[in-house]
Amino acid sequence: MRPTDPPMNLSRAGLDLARDLSVNVLRGLRDVVSHSVEQASDRRPTVAWLDQFIGEIEKAGRKTVEGLNAALDATTDALTKARQSVDMADETIRKALFENVAVSSIAGASFAGITISEIRPSFRRNGRDVGIDEALEGSTDKALLLCVPGLFCDEGMWSGLHAVFEKMGYHPLYVRFNPGAHISDNGQALLEMITEITTRTANKVNVVTYSQGGLILRSALYLMSDRSRMGRLLLISSPDGGSYIEKIGFWVNAAADAIPLFPARLFGQIGNERSDAMKDLSHGLIREEDWKNDPHPDRYGRHYYFGELDGLDAYQAYGLITEDAKHPASVLGDGVVERPSLERLQSVYKAMPATETGRVHCLTGLSHYSIIGSEQIRALIERLFAEMHCP
């Protein structure tokens, strides 16, 4: 249950009750007056002055009935609009909070047991969830390009590249996940989406991912029994070895938990409410069994790669603030993901058959957030995918 449900439901119930009571009272008064007027008409006296007097009463009664009808209509309309306003407010809150990608990325689907996100994995088109058939509309004679966003992102992050995709002859398929859910859960959801695509078309599925989206793709590939329908893959800024931000976050919260002071303990408890996805990002966990069975301290020194990219036509791109190892900023990698994490699977890519464009692309001077809108990544996408514009 969402935390806004009780007050919203109470508001709806109150307005419904007020509308029903008001309408029933007005209807009752109208019926009484109308009945009285009818009775007066049936019993008209023969005395002229009295007949005239009752006639005036009838006119007044009819005007009263007309007024009550108008009041009934106005009351019903006003309370109906008030009810609609509550529904609109609830919808606005739902989109602003419960479908807020940033909130979900940080805190996940719930915070302290309270539901705060209702985002579900889905294909997306024109800012709304759609089914596979609508997602594939207009894809005839076009290659498919599945676009997987990262943490803090939804399908809107690809808007600057949409025209590029279409110019190359691709039909882009946009998806959205609950970015705060476990990477393995979103990987399962992505696998189901890819299966829907391959059951409705003979085309191969080309994929471009950003940040956490690379881990979600790898998770889906790990679960995939037959990868023969996968086309060219480009993983941009994939934190394959995790993120130093989450590693630091874990130890800061652990230290706060260990301090026997209420403010520190409270800080640690609040910090531990961060999303499952952020916890998985500590070391790039893509399998359910790893986040279930490997405590954070045991993850250091382990490699969480399971051959999911082997035999595929995969490419890697990432940015670095600086390649100068002596520069203080070099320890930050791209500002969000450290360099060793970005290059964790470099040997995997380099072991693949060589291509003219190369498998690994390090774009110096670009941060984690500037890379996706850069001319360098646009040019790389055009080089990698333009030659594959036919299904």
From TrEMBL:
InterPro entries per UniProt: AB_hydrolase_fold
Domain of life of the native organism: Bacteria
Protein name from the UniProt record: Alpha/beta hydrolase
Species of origin: Leptonema illini DSM 21528
